[in-house]
Write a structure and sequence with these properties.
By secondary structure, the protein is mainly α. The protein has a single domain, classed as Growth Hormone, Chain: A (Up-down Bundle), CATH 1.20.1250. It contains nine helices and no strands.
């Protein structure tokens, strides 16, 4: 198989594959993570709404007295993310018999919260005051908690949509052509690239346009994933990847 064919098979598997269309959909959600975390870090007070490892570290820095960080903002993000993950777990359990429906339900809830965030950003002045920042942090962290719960339930290897530490470790430690070259290596590389591309896009949008623009792009991507999940679930109700 040629290199191009290997890349295509890894990133766009056939419906008969174990993970099928879930692969490109989760890559897209990884892009979303980069967009929203770039916006939240740059404009909402040095806090992440998706990568909670960073918030735990920021909380520690704030408690130690470091300037430019808010312990309350980190706590709000952590609490909202946990609540979102709990809700996402509940949604996933309801649709557990069909992985496409798990993703569709999660994306519907996630898109609703991101639409609320967009409305807040559009109605409020820029730069946002403290209350608005906290509202955006809470709504976006809830949305990203739901996304992460869905990704965990779907369990597509190397595509968590958020955490890249394990992905980078696997890429470095297993990328020498020994253990898991092929699809795993390709997906890890693309996952890292998607996060980076999302962060670049989110940074450019929030610095050159507005907070609302970055949220709108993220919302559009989430809606696209949700619609795609619905269509492929309807087209392939009993394919191997659905179970």
């Amino acid at each position: 198989m040629s290199a191009l064919a290997q890349v295509r098979a890894a990133l766009w598997p056939s419906p008969d594959d174990r993970h099928g269309p879930l692969v490109p959909l989760l890559v897209t959600l990884t892009l979303v993570t980069g967009v929203v975390d770039a916006m939240s870090y740059l404009m909402l007070g040095h806090v992440f709404v998706a990568n909670m490892t960073g918030n735990v570290v920021f909380l520690g820095f704030a408690l130690a007295g470091a300037g430019g960080l808010s312990a309350l903002a980190s706590l709000i993000a952590l609490a909202a993310f946990i609540a979102g993950a709990y809700g996402g777990g509940w949604l996933g359990a309801r649709e557990a018999v069909h992985r496409g429906r798990v993703l569709r339900s999660a994306n519907l809830a996630q898109a609703s919260l991101m639409a609320l965030s967009l409305l807040i950003a559009l109605l409020c002045a820029s730069p946002p005051d403290r209350a608005v920042r906290y509202g955006l942090i809470a709504s976006l962290a809830l949305a990203m908690g739901i996304q992460n719960a869905a990704a965990q339930r779907l369990s597509v290897p190397d595509l968590t949509t958020t955490v890249l530490t394990k992905t980078l470790t696997g890429l470095a430690s297993e990328g020498g052509g020994h253990a898991e070259a092929g699809p795993s290596l390709i997906r890890r590389s693309v996952s890292i690239g998607a996060m980076l591309a999302g962060a670049v896009a989110g940074g450019l949008l929030v610095l050159d346009v507005s907070i609302a623009a970055s949220i709108a792009v993220a919302l559009g991507l989430v809606l696209g994933v949700g619609v795609s999940a619905h269509l492929v679930s309807h087209a392939h109700p009993d394919a191997p990847w659905t179970r």
